[in-house]
Write a structure and sequence with these properties.
The first copy, chain A, contains 13 helices and 14 strands. Chain A is α/β, with parallel strands linked by helices and about 350 residues long. In chain A, the strands form 4 sheets. In chain A, strands 2-10-9-8-5-3-4 form a 7-stranded mixed sheet, with helices on both faces. In chain A, strands 11-14-13 form a 3-stranded antiparallel sheet, covered by helices on one side. The first copy, chain A, has a two-stranded parallel sheet with strand order 1-12. Chains A and B meet through helix 1, helix 3, helix 4 and helix 10 of A and helix 1, helix 3, helix 4 and helix 10 of B.
């Protein structure tokens, strides 16, 4: 039995979109492909509120995170780390011999503008990496406030991993001055994995032109050269691109503001549910993600058992990430999930919780 | 109207395999995913005649070519270049600051063992890159003969790009001692683009452990760590992996020897067809690819017009690559193409050629 996915990626994909994957293949140097590619870019620019170039990468997000640090730093990268995925950005610098310093924040806490300001004042950094929505902890860092601080540092490239929130929350790329914002499509886009989207600023291309070893598959300038003619340098992930074309039509038909509102509503519903069942929110409420809720397992249930019971009913949520396994659990509410589907899941959880033993003294 | 693809990638994908792409998504840290991943690896090992580790990369082949030079050289790479795709390997070294020397051979000619032997004798190289089947020119270099020479140089990593021939011709990985053999699945595997396969030797892992800046997405050792538990470090291209599982069953059901024989037969049919129509083979016959035929446009037809007419009938072949455009044309016969389908295409070409003007004096 297929389990309906309420995990923080991959998200559940609607059958009509899955069916688009099975479109017969076309040559990636054909006019048909360029038409497809060229049809998608302006739709993505709408979703991202940007005039910047938007790229389609045949890879998961990790590759494009790595591309950021390879293309955008000649001095030192400030890597803001408050969870498993933001930590990767620091590890990528090390794996590529790129000087970097970690701004470490406790898991479950957000990255705040004053922390960044204090660091950047030294003038030693030329690139900042920050994860907007930490999938490991359910924290959304206030990128809007960080963006205000970043205006003081025009020479510092502003790279935002929006992996688990892009297409689920409003990201005004140009207003915030993001040099790179990126996301894999298997999260709030509600598409199957294998494709990553990024918007890249002109400032970023100018910087890239000064960096010597940008790599080949990761080279922003080579991507731009091909993207300008609605192609990719290497073979694109054509099935996912067919699906994205259709899904963007559906996203725009829903209406962007409606989509952002729906995600806020589902988040509120889920937060209230876990709190009212004795599971506090892991992050402070004002920094809670709008696409996934991470709750503290204060009642000492066995999360794996909850998920096993859910599985029998055709649903799946996530345990805590890494060291947070069994100490927290995560319920995703991203992509195309409706209010009714969310309520159905939560009703099942409510039902199962009545039967699960807890480790808390009465 | 869909055009049936006889271009050297992407190949035509059968509807039953396309349908597998639309399988509902599963979490990539779930048991279901590990079962799928673990089911595929031994089947790929059969296709590649290897006991080496086989990896599934969410990327096109280009990324894995780049991974080779990033993981396997501390001294200098010898890049054998006899076409557009082999040239990329040299460019990747440059883009990553990896010392390399180009062994340049004229387009249309193969890389021969004595050329490599002459170069490697200097002892300055620790990695060799060679393309088995040059998609730009239709040349198959004699990897079996090169493998004999490579036995003299156990410290030189032997990297083979088999992009447009893997799963179309026999590649006895272990017998030849290939340290890396890689291919995107949109060629002779007859799967949709977005997934790359590689087999990596233990010797290669040992070398990688001595190389400092292997990158993150490209790191062979990180891939191995996850592959050992039937996972990938980053999110995999799940739709293509579902399709590959089914396609490998079909490939093994056809029988590997039958599959190699079919490709030889289709190649012979196509070579004879073009020659008998006044188009000489671009490479010397003994070095002609078994998965695609590159013919010289000796009659001075307009290849674009031939393809336009074919398009009206629901078929597509390829023009020459880059500077060889209109000077050559390419007909692919890879993947799941049957004898009858090949004959149907060639009959159409025969028919169209009767109507196309030529530039050759009678």
């Amino acid at each position: 039995m297929h389990k309906k996915l309420f995990i923080p990626g991959p998200s559940e994909v609607r059958p009509s979109i899955l069916a688009k994957l099975a479109t017969p293949q076309i040559g990636h140097r054909s006019k048909d492909y360029s038409d497809l590619h060229g049809r998608i870019l302006p739709k993505l620019q709408q979703v991202l509120y940007t005039k910047n170039d938007v790229f389609l990468w045949a890879s998961s997000s990790t590759l494009v995170m790595e591309a950021c640090v390879r293309n955008l730093s000649n001095k030192k990268v400030l890597s803001c780390v408050n969870g498993a995925f933001s930590k990767r950005w620091a590890q990528m610098c090390t794996a590529n011999g790129i000087p970097n310093e970690v701004l470490q924040v406790e898991w479950g806490k957000p990255i705040l503008p004053e922390m960044i300001d204090a660091k950047l004042q030294s003038g030693e950094f030329d690139c900042l990496t920050v994860v907007m929505n930490e999938t490991s902890t359910g924290v959304e860092s206030p990128i809007d406030e960080i963006a205000e601080v970043m205006k003081k540092y025009p020479d510092v490239m502003f790279c935002v991993d929006a992996v688990s929130c892009m297409a689920g929350v409003k990201i005004p790329t140009d207003e915030w001055g993001l040099d790179v914002v990126l996301a894999g499509v298997q999260k709030a886009f509600a598409l199957p994995a294998g494709l990553t989207v990024s918007a890249i600023s002109n400032r970023a291309f100018e910087r890239a032109a000064t960096v010597k070893y940008r790599g080949y598959y990761t080279d922003f300038l080579d991507m731009k050269k091909y993207n300008d003619k609605n192609q990719t340098p290497a073979t694109p992930a054509i099935p996912q691109i067919f699906a994205m074309d259709a899904q963007l039509d559906d996203i725009l038909a829903e209406g962007l503001d409606n989509r952002w509102e729906r995600h806020k509503r589902l988040a509120e519903m889920t937060r209230n549910f876990v709190e009212s069942h004795g599971f506090p929110l892991f992050p402070e409420r004002k920094y809670c993600s709008k696409t996934l809720t991470c709750a503290v397992n204060a009642k000492g249930i066995v999360v794996a058992d909850l998920n096993k019971e859910l599985g029998k009913r055709g649903f799946q949520i996530s345990n805590g990430y890494g060291d947070l396994k069994e100490k927290t659990f995560r319920i995703a509410h991203m992509g195309d999930v409706t209010d009714a589907e969310m309520k159905e899941l939560l009703d099942h959880i409510d039902d199962i919780l009545k039967t699960l033993p807890t480790n808390v003294q009465a």
